[in-house]
Design goal:
Elements lengths: L1 H32 L7 H100 L1 H5 L5 H146 L5 H29 L3 H10 L5 H38 L11 H4 L4 H15 L17 E2 L6 H4 L6 E2 L2 H9 L10 H4 L4 E4 L8 E4 L6 E7 L2 E4 L8 E4 L8 E4 L2
Antiparallel strand pairs: 1-2, 3-8, 4-5, 5-6, 6-7
Protein name: NlpC/P60 family protein
GO molecular function: cysteine-type peptidase activity
Keywords: Hydrolase, Protease, Signal, Thiol protease
Length: 548
């Protein structure tokens, strides 16, 4: 996938590089020649197409990064589930081993009891046989029975006593035989249970192996996805930089075109002004010629009138001179000169009056702009002064801590959280942690081993919660799935400080302790440490577990 991205990137970055180079050359040329450049429509169109292609490619990369990030997130959640599968398999294996050991001990005890029963039965049988032989010998010889007897009645009593003793011995033998049979049956049943326990131990051991293998395979997949995700981020950033460069190139070409058009408009305005000035000068010359002609035609008038007329013409000439000066002021674009021209004029010259009007308008606009600026600054100052007064705000309240709880329960929650918070910064160690504190991690054949968890003293997620709740006498198993079965379940919308949060099916993936305000404390994963994180709602179980 990264190689395909590189091929696609080279496909659309080549034209962008050309556009950027052209823009740089155009800029350098503009500095050297001091003339606005007029980029062609084709250049502008090509630059816009390159920027559009870059933007489309960037959007595809953003989508790819988002998709890759989602895959990595799903795999991390799956890794948590598989990690807890291994934890469960280890807990189950330990339980099966304990059961098998207890059953083997019971079988050995039953066998010993059976051996004792057999020995007791053999001893009693031997006594019974000896007594039976004695009775039989005495029965065949009546003389032996009568020997020492005072009379026949005494002899009969002796014989009866022997028979009663024989009966009791026979009962003893029967009882011992029954006990031997029961012991044999018990030994057989326990032997069967022992076989079952050994089979359960073997099954648990196989499940543990399978879980570790699945975890290792998923870890390899996660590493690959993480590499793809990182490469996608690099490609996205490169595409964004290229897009910015392409947009800058388009802006540069547009700016060049705008500067060129502005220069053309300025030249056209200058040409029009020069043409207008020439026309006005020609009209002025014609007017002067007509005035001179009229002066010659009026030579028949009286001398006073002629002198008056001559003075008027002299004044007109002066006015023309002033007007010319005013025109010069107009061409020099000096507002004050234009104003003086208007003042020195008699108002007969329209060009001079126009110049003076323009200067007056410019002065008015400038003054209005200044007043507007001062008003704006005053308004801004007023706004700043207004915002300088701190507003009265209400401190946010935490709905969890605002609820009424019993003092005993609240104290337990704070004890649990304080114990967990005391481990902030402790390394994550897969399989680590018990009721007494952090312990050495174990091997997993994958991510944990790559981070050296088996050689670290720390906690995994369920080890941290186990340790924290041991502070209030709650004994939790070292497996999230079993921890999820403890306590009372509440909807996640009702979570409170101290509740256990779970991820994965039936809490099978991960566990953390809720702190309130959308925060939790957790031992997240290999390579990390015990830390406070925002609650991740993706993949979280619908219920939380409350233990106190």
């Amino acid at each position: 996938m990264p190689s395909n991205r590189k091929v696609r990137a080279s496909y659309w970055t080549r034209p962008i590089a050309g556009i950027i180079t052209a823009g740089l050359l155009a800029t350098n040329t503009q500095v050297a020649v001091a003339q606005p450049l007029n980029p062609s429509d084709a250049q502008i169109r090509q630059a816009r197409e390159a920027a559009s292609n870059a933007e489309s490619y960037l959007q595809s990369l953003v989508a790819e990064v988002t998709s890759s990030e989602r895959r990595v997130s799903d795999l991390e959640l799956r890794m948590g589930t598989l990690r807890e599968d291994v934890n469960k398999a280890m807990v189950d294996l330990e339980t099966a081993r304990d059961a098998a050991n207890r059953t083997r001990d019971a079988v050995n005890e039953a066998r010993a009891q059976l051996d004792r029963s057999r020995a007791e039965l053999a001893s009693a049988q031997k006594q019974f046989d000896e007594l039976a032989r004695t009775i039989m010998r005495q029965g065949r010889s009546s003389g032996s029975i009568l020997e020492g007897a005072r009379d026949a009645s005494d002899a009969i009593n002796r014989l009866s006593a022997l028979r009663r003793e024989a009966d009791r011995q026979e009962q003893t033998v029967d009882s011992l035989d029954k006990n031997r049979t029961e012991a044999a049956n018990q030994e057989s049943a326990l032997r069967k249970k022992s076989d079952e326990a050994q089979q359960a131990e073997a099954t648990a051991n196989q499940r543990n192996t399978d879980a570790q293998n699945a975890y290792s395979e998923a870890n390899q997949e996660l590493q690959k996805e993480q590499a793809d995700y990182q490469q996608a981020q690099v490609d996205r950033d490169a595409a964004k930089a290229s897009l910015d460069a392409a947009r800058n190139a388009v802006n540069e070409l547009n700016s060049q075109r705008q500067n060129y058009e502005n220069e053309q408009a300025r030249k056209e305005a200058e040409d029009a002004a020069a043409k207008k000035a020439a026309e006005e000068a020609a009209a002025k010359t014609r007017a002067e010629a007509q005035a001179n002609q009229a002066e010659e035609d009026s030579s028949s008038e009286s001398t006073d009138e002629s002198n008056s007329s001559t003075g008027s013409n002299s004044s007109t000439g002066s006015t023309g001179s002033n007007s010319s000066t005013g025109s010069t002021g107009s061409n020099s674009s000096t507002g004050s000169t234009g104003s003086n021209s208007s003042t020195g004029s008699t108002g007969s010259n329209s060009s001079t009056g126009s110049t003076g009007s323009t200067s007056s308008s410019e002065t008015t606009e400038s003054t209005g702009s200044s007043e507007s600026t001062e008003t704006s600054e005053s308004s801004s100052t007023g706004s700043a002064s207004s915002s300088g007064t701190p507003a009265q705000t209400v401190a946010p309240t935490n709905p969890e801590t605002g609820q009424s709880t019993s003092g005993s329960s609240s104290q337990k929650v704070e004890t649990v959280i304080a114990r967990a918070m005391g481990q902030l910064g402790v390394p994550y160690a897969w399989g680590g942690g018990n009721a007494n504190g952090p312990t050495k991690g174990i091997r997993d054949g994958g991510v944990a081993d790559s981070h050296g968890d088996y050689n670290k003293i720390g906690f995994d997620c369920s080890g941290l919660t186990l340790y924290a709740y041991a502070a209030v006498g709650i004994d939790l198993p070292h497996y999230t799935g079993y921890q999820y079965q403890r306590g009372k379940h509440y909807p996640a919308s009702q979570m409170k400080r101290g509740d256990l949060l779970f991820w994965g099916p039936n809490g099978h993936g991960h566990v953390a302790i809720y702190l309130g305000d959308g925060k939790m404390i957790e031992a997240p994963q290999s390579g990390s440490v015990v830390k406070i994180s925002p609650v991740r709602y993706n993949g979280m179980t619908p219920n939380v577990v409350r233990l106190v």
